[in-house]
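sorry for the late reply, my laptop died twice this morning and i had to redo everyting from scratch. anyway the thing you sent over, i finally got around to it. pasting the sequence first so we're on the same page, its 298 residues, then the predicted structure underneath. double check i copied it right bc i was rushing
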Amino acid sequence: MGFNSRQSARLEAYRERQRAAGLVSERFPEVESIRLETVFHDTDGRPIQRRIKEVHGDAYALFELPCPIEGCTVSLDEIIRQAIAKHGRRRTGAIVCSGENKETGVTMPPHHMDYSITIRYHKAGKSTKKSSAATERRSAAAQKPRTRAARSEAKAGAVKGGSKRQAPAKKAAQVQARKPSARTATSTKRTKGASASSAGKKRQTRAKAASKATGASKRSAKSSASAAKKKASAAKTRASRQKKATTKKRSGSARVGGKQAGKVAAKVTGRANRSKRTRAVAQAGSARGVARVRRQSV
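ok and here's the structure:
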């Protein structure tokens, strides 16, 4: 058997196992997705390959991973089945691979694979809806005619039957359209309630904006009044300082004037005293001279 034939046989066997396993949505309808994280180690324990696989409801429920060392496969089907049966959400562990190649019969030293499984489940009500939708699709696909002749005959029968029932169906549709449904009534009520709530919110926001504006105006008025008071007090202090400065100048000038007048009077009095002295000296000298002449004449 050649290489290509072995590959085709291996692929056909894998597809057969997939069909036998079925879809995840059929086998596990409550499961939304399954995440597989695996790390393969060699015989010495060194990691050689890491894989991450996300399995959803439309995938096959076959959880086989090929071993990268010897070509054998490692299966996680039983571990996942037990975890879902117990409604588990996470499983971790390790699986020892025997290293046996079934095609060649060669056996290598055992090695292992670390795995981490994360299972997500549908919320309440979703799994049943999805499973029912899947069964409906499968039944519809099974009921569809597969040949062209059968499809044409089915279309012709549908047209004949539809032409007879078209008029009453139209009338019923028109009547149903005229009648307001419960959904439309509830939707109108919701829209009215939403509009009323939005109007109330708008009024509240406007009132808040008005209160903020009034508060800001009051604060600005207070600040302006305080600024005016500060300016008035500053002007008063300046006026008082100017008055003090002028009084100091006047008192200083008066003091200077008094001192100068005293000095002038002292000078005048000194001059008068000196003139009197000179006069007395002159008179005394003249009297002495006269007495001297009289003595000489005698």
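The mean pLDDT is 77.
thats about all i looked at so far, will dig more tmrw
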